[in-house]
Amino acid sequence: MYGNYKVVVNTAAGRRRYMQYLIPYIVSCGIVDRYDIWINTHNGVDIEFFKQVAAKYPVVNLVWQPDGVVNGNKSINAFYKACVEPDTIYFKLDDDVVWMEPELIEKMIKFRADNPQFFLVSPLVINNSLSTYLLQVEGKLKLDKYYEAICSHPVFWKSGYFAKELHTWFIEKYLKVRQWEKLYLGKKEIGMTRFSINAILWFGEEMKKFAGEVPGDDEEFLSCIYPTRQGMSNAWNGDAVVAHFAFFTQREQLDKWHILEQYGEICEQDFIGSETLRRYYADVQAAMNDVKDNEEELMQRPSPYRSVPVKTTWRARIKKKLPQSVQELLLIRYDLKRKGGFIIG
Asked: Which superfamily does 6-337 belong to?
């Protein structure tokens, strides 16, 4: 609880390789009344991992896809119908939010309660196109040239090479030396434009006005269409920082550079060094090890959901036929084209 508000965190899950770092932050937070893990996967190993975490912590509530079908991002919309409770603040975090500053949840819940005029609020997200734009225009991040404020920007959103530079910049200059406060920007209001909803908060009463019925692309509707229709804006709390690992356009490259492992090492050090977080991290790692030991059997379990045939694009089909060496060259095409990097300071 926070004041008179119930606090519900939710995550569309999922991928245990990321959530092993996210879960300890949430289940250890004293103001979180419920952590809804939206089971949006067919993967039997991930599902068993979430079941074990839920069995360990009463605050964790597994939510099954209401329509009985899983189809990636396209099946997430149905979960919002249950996010309409009165006197409730919801905090939705992507499953690949892999680091957050201490007491981030408390800070964001307070910001949400103190700023009811906005539809959505978000912390400053490392690796989020418009958050990166804010860092640029505020002079916190010096780039080789000016880049525009576009949600699906060809560099900020699409480039794995840029994402690698950005994460490395953040890890080396701010995270390892624990000086992320130097990136603080204050409150930033935004309207009539889409942004990536990696970490967003809303009031249950506002979502109830449209019964949680989110048509089409949930990101487009929630960040842009609905608030524009209502004459509302959204806002960043630029004095609160989280790190988002990757968009699908970046993931393959970042895995090659072992960026997730770098965040994992930092999280492990922080968790083990904390009296509060140590036991939560140990429990989550025990579940990770258990499902790993039983991975072959768990992968054979039938999915609880209906499947939707995956449509493969012609680009993906062509890429699959290319030799591995050519695929690797394509992955680092930005590196090959440029004499230097995107980030200069």
From this structure: Spore Coat Polysaccharide Biosynthesis Protein SpsA; Chain A (3.90.550.10)
